[in-house]
Amino acid sequence: MLLTAAARLSWAAILRRLLIVNSFNALLWLLLPLTYGGTEVVRFAGLNLSLTGLRLAALITIKGNAAVLLFISLLSTSTVARLGHSLQLLRLSPRLCLLLLFSYRYLGLIHEEFLRLHRAAELRCFHPRTNLHTYRTYGHLLGMVIVRSWNRAARVQQAMLLRGFSGTFHSLEPTELHRNDVLLMAGLLLTALLLVVLELIG
């Protein structure tokens, strides 16, 4: 929560993401106290609730929300291009870094292409139903998206080769390690070590 507050992100967007995570946690709160078992039992509304199940549901909820807040605060403050370049500087596979960058860049374009073809089908009075015509139409639609994506990928590859692309990603923004970065990394490592020690002691 401290990292999220320091990142100065929109709390409304954060709460929407946490709502998705906690919808799964709500199911755990309903099932674990009733099914986990154990000797310690708490009676509530005529039901025998396992105290161990309640503790486990609370632990999963706290850890899940902490992990989501950690990723949001660390990843939302950086662009995908800078993230890909940083992963490459950490000696991650260059192919994986390029896959991340190209996926982020072109998934939106592929989605736009799908929406354009879907609008064209609707202008031709296409109304989806549970019949063979609808399944065939969606099959043709997805086939056209794959074909056009393949053609676009071929054009992009040719354009990059013409510009001398050799498989290495170069960033236009200089990457420098500042004192605040070192302090943040040290603080996160010490916190992680403390959590591991507490887990072993508990």
UniProtKB/TrEMBL annotation:
It is a multi-pass membrane protein. It comes from the Bacteria. GO terms for cellular component: plasma membrane. Its main location: membrane. It holds the Pfam family CbiQ. Keywords: Cell membrane, Membrane, Transmembrane, Transmembrane helix. The chain crosses the membrane at residues 18-36, 56-77, 182-201. CDD domains: EcfT (cd16914). It is found in: Membrane. InterPro entries: ABC/ECF_trnsptr_transmembrane (IPR003339), ECF_transporter_component (IPR051611). The keyword S-adenosyl-L-methionine does not apply. PANTHER family: SLL0384 PROTEIN. This is Cobalt/nickel transport system permease protein. It comes from Candidatus Electronema aureum.
